[in-house]
Specification:
It is a single chain. This protein is mainly alpha-helical. The chain is globular, with a radius of gyration of 21 Å. The protein starts with 15 loop residues before the first helix and ends in a 5-residue tail after the last helix. Helix 4 (86-100) packs parallel to helix 12 (278-295). The protein has 16 helices and no strands. It has one domain. Helices cover 66% and strands 0% of the residues.
Length: 372
C-alpha cells in the first residue's frame, strides 16, 4: 500500500521531498519498514491482547503426569498462562505486509493466504484445547489433512500460474549451480507437501519452552529475507548463480515482517512467559517459512536454516519409532528440548543455547550463497 507513495515523487520533481517519496519503491527500504512496523505492533499491542485473553480465560492446558505416563509433569507452573498469542504475531505480520508490500505480486497473496489459513487452523486447535481444558485439540489426522489441503492449493496455484509454473517444478540443492531436477512434474505436489506441512509441524513441536520457537523464528525469517531478496534481483541472482524469480524479492517484506513480529512477541513470551503463541502462531510461522523457501527455490536449505526445528521434529519421530520397534526410548523425553531439561539444563539455558544454534545455522545457510 505504501509502495505507491513513490509515485508522488513526480509531483515534487527535483526537491528533497521527491527523494523522500522515491525510497518507497525500494524493496530493502520497505522490508525494513515492515520489520519495524510488525515489531512495534507486537510490542505495543501485546499487553492489551494478553489482558483480553485472560478475560476470555484462554489459559494454556498443560500435559499432566498421566498424559506423559511419567511420575511428574513438566512446567505445571505454566498452567493457566494465556495461549493463542499467535493472534498478535500473525496479525502484526499481515497488517505490516498490507502496509509495506507491493500488493500486485501473486507471491504476496500466497504468503498472506498461508498465514491466514494456518493461523485460523491453529486458532481452532487452541480454542478447542481451552474450551475442553485438555492438551488435545484437533486430532492429528484432521490437522494433517487440513495442512495437506493447503499444500495442494498452493501447488496448484504455482503450477497454474504461467510465470511461476516452470520454476516451481525445479529442485535445487545447496552447492550446485543448476537444478538437481529440472522437471519434477507430479512430484512437485509431494515436495510442497513435505516442505509446508513439515515446516508447519516442526515449528509447532518446537514451541514448548518460553521464547524458544519465537527466538529461532527470528533468525530463520531474517535468512529467508536475504534469500528472497537476492532471488528477486536478477543481477545479484546471476552473480551468485542462484535461481531467479522476479516475484520473490517482494517476499523479503514478508520475511522481515515475520522476524520483527516474532521479536516483538518475544518481549512478552520470554521467560517467564506472559503469553504463549499456541498453534495459532507456530503453525502459521512454519507454513510461512515453507512458502518463502518454495518461492526462492531454497526448499532443501530450509533443513539447514531451520535446523533447530528439524532436530526437534526428528527427535519426536525417532522416539516414537524406537519405542514401537524396540520398546526403548532414545531420549529421556521428546521433543528434544525436554530431553535436555531432564538432563539437568535449566529452561532458560536450553532456550538460549537453541537460539545460538539457530543463529549459527542461519549464518551457515547464508554462506551457501557463495559456495556454488
Amino acid at each position: 500500500m505504501l509502495y505507491y507513495l513513490f509515485q508522488l515523487s513526480d509531483l515534487f520533481h527535483g526537491s528533497n521531498l521527491a527523494k523522500t517519496f522515491h525510497v518507497f519503491q525500494y524493496i530493502s527500504f520497505r522490508a525494513m519498514g515492515a520489520g519495524l512496523t510488525s515489531f512495534l505492533l507486537s510490542l505495543f499491542f501485546g499487553k492489551s491482547v494478553i489482558k483480553r485473553l485472560i478475560m476470555l480465560r484462554a489459559g494454556q492446558p498443560i500435559r499432566t503426569a498421566q498424559d506423559l505416563h511419567r511420575s511428574f509433569a513438566l512446567h505445571e507452573d505454566k498452567q493457566g498462562t494465556p495461549t493463542m498469542g499467535g493472534i498478535l504475531l500473525v496479525g502484526s505480520v499481515l497488517l505490516s505486509t498490507l502496509l509495506w508490500a507491493r500488493l500486485n505480486n501473486p507471491l504476496i497473496w500466497i504468503a498472506f493466504f498461508t498465514a491466514l489459513y494456518l493461523g485460523g487452523l491453529g486458532f481452532l486447535d487452541d480454542y478447542l484445547k481451552v474450551t475442553k481444558k485438555k492438551s488435545a485439540g484437533i486430532s492429528s489426522r484432521q490437522k494433517f489433512l487440513l495442512q495437506s489441503l493447503l499444500a495442494v492449493i498452493i501447488t496448484v496455484v504455482f503450477m497454474c500460474t504461467p510465470s511461476l509454473s516452470l520454476a516451481a517444478q525445479e529442485l535445487y540443492i545447496p552447492f550446485l549451480k543448476g537444478p538437481l531436477i529440472a522437471h519434477l512434474g507430479v512430484a512437485t505436489f509431494l515436495l510442497y507437501l513435505l516442505v509446508i506441512v513439515g515446516a508447519s509441524n516442526a515449528v509447532n513441536i518446537t514451541d514448548g519452552l518460553d521464547g524458544l520457537a519465537a527466538g529461532c523464528s527470528v533468525m530463520a525469517a531474517c535468512a529467508y529475507g536475504v534469500f528472497t531478496y537476492v532471488s528477486g534481483n536478477i543481477k545479484v541472482a546471476t552473480y551468485l548463480q542462484i535461481p531467479h524469480n522476479p516475484y520473490a524479492g517482494e517476499l523479503s517484506v514478508v520475511s522481515i515482517a515475520l522476524a520483527g513480529a516474532a521479536l516483538g512477541f518475544l518481549w512478552w513470551n520470554c521467560h517467564p512467559a506472559r503469553v504463549f503463541m499456541g498453534d495459532t502462531g507456530s503453525l502459521a510461522i512454519g507454513g510461512l517459512l515453507g512458502v518463502l523457501a518454495i518461492s526462492c527455490k531454497q526448499e532443501i536449505l530450509l533443513m539447514l536454516v531451520g535446523g533447530v526445528f528439524v532436530a526437534e521434529a526428528l527427535s519426536v519421530i525417532l522416539q516414537v519409532a524406537s519405542f514401537k520397534l524396540t520398546g526403548r526410548r532414545i531420549f529421556k523425553m521428546s521433543p528434544l528440548h525436554h530431553h535436555f531439561e531432564l538432563s539437568g539444563w535449566k529452561e532458560s539455558t536450553v532456550t538460549i543455547r537453541f537460539w545460538i544454534m539457530a543463529i549459527i545455522l542461519g549464518i551457515l545457510g547464508l554462506v551457501t550463497l557463495k559456495l556454488r
